[in-house]
Amino acid sequence: MQRIGTGIRRSKRLATVALCASILTVGTLGLAGCKGGAAAVGGSGKASDERLVIGWSQRGISGSDWWKTLVEGGQAEAGKVGARLELLDANGDTVRQNADVQTLITKGVDVVVMNPNDPIGVGPSIQALKDAGIPVVTVNSSVDKSLVPDMFCYVAEDQEHTGSLAGKVAAQRALEKFGDKGKIKIVGIGGFPGDVLSDLRFNGFMAGWNSVMQKHPGVTTVKLDTKYGEWKPDKALAPIRDVATANPDLKVVYSMSDVMHGGIVQGLQQAGLWGDGIIMASYDGGMGAIKEMVDNPKGPLQADASNQPWDQGAAAVRMAIAAVKGDQAQCPGKTKYIDTTVVTPADAAEYYVPKDTYVRAKG
Questions:
Q1: Contacts for 294-299 with beta carbons within 8 Å, 24 or more apart?
Q2: Total domains present in the chain
Q3: For residues 286 and 44, what is the distance between their CA atoms, to the nearest angstrom?
Q4: 8 Å CB contact between 322 and 330
Q5: Over 80: is that where the pLDDT of 42 sits?
Q6: How many angstroms separate the CA atoms of 271 and 265, rounded?
């Protein structure tokens, strides 16, 4: 009987969500059922039973502007439709995240968005949500393939595709700067040897690069061994300095995260290579990198592929609403890739928003 009652409440909440969304579309915000919806999201006040409640289990927030932006995007989207978002932060602890999910179940949330701390370690949470009849959407990080059947949707960027956007631009700039004959040395720097993020982002970059260079057989691409900076600027400095010193004819550097940018620049400077002879591409769409292209459009940094955490958070909430409705067509194949972009000096000013930390989709 308890699950039947919950289902009735969900139906009422969904009706209110749909109504509020329609009201927002036509711009008449004065109806009582939608008043204060955005302001109440994430707040501590008691919500009406008529509102959809989205539980959000976040793997961590402290020290990461990326994760903070991810959550803010979700909160903003929930506010648009008058839903309430219950946020719990596991602070990098899988045991705590499993406990957080139990708390959300106890609170009677209608759906859970989870940014898993460990793909297999959150298995107890996925099972508990299944037993409670509460759908789950994962965002940014997915769960182990053994748990996917019990998940409604995984929301993220397609990292290979996003990396390829930067690779195409870097190849085009290389042809403009160095011509269509001769040798071009490339080095990529990622997080850790063997980590999936580094492999996806670099493989994507090279796919984009090769798609351009295959039309220019006079260019020989020399791909140096990938370096690793542990996703930190101080750890990236020495590997880049060393490879640049050993290869003074290095021409293209691809950073797999803007977070390492400062250390990479210092490493190239110490090797005497930072300047007109280098083309740099990066990944993340961090606003600091965008500002660099605005200020120095002819500088080394010529492309930044954006993974748009705000848009990922917003998409996760949209998929959470689809999950409550049982509308699997909104997430075919249980994966929803957001549309990503690459920012170049030509359009950096259009994407630069000083108050933001990462690029968002236009409009």
A1: 294/345, 294/348, 294/349, 294/352, 297/345, 297/346, 297/348, 298/345, 299/345
A2: 2
A3: 31
A4: yes
A5: no
A6: 10
- Rounded to an integer, the average pLDDT of 210-236 is 97
Residue 127 makes CB contacts below 8 A (sequence gap 6+) with 150
* Sequence-ordered list of residues with C-beta below 8 angstroms from that of 111, at least 6 positions apart, any chain: 52, 54, 55, 134, 135, 136, 137, 320, 321, 323, 324
- Indicate if 208 and 119 belong to the same structural domain: no
Strands (E), the chain: 53-58, 84-89, 111-114, 136-139, 153-156, 182-190, 219-223, 227-228, 250-255, 279-284, 301-306, 335-337, 341-343
| Separation CA 328–CA 312 (nearest Å) | 18
pTM of structure: 0.84
* Same-domain status, 8 and 147: yes
Dmax of the chain from CA atoms?
74
Looking at the fold, whether 152 and 163 belong to one and the same domain comes out as no
Same domain (yes/no): 88, 189: no
User: Which amino acid is present at 279?
Assistant: I
Q: CA-to-CA distance for 328 and 336, rounded, in angstroms?
A: 11
Q: Are the beta carbons of 184 and 221 closer than 8 angstroms? A: yes
Give tens-digit pLDDT for 295-337: 999 999 999 999 999 999 999 999 999 999 999 999 999 999 9
With both helix axes pointing from N to C terminus, report the angle between 233-246 and 261-270 in degrees, rounded to the nearest 10. 30
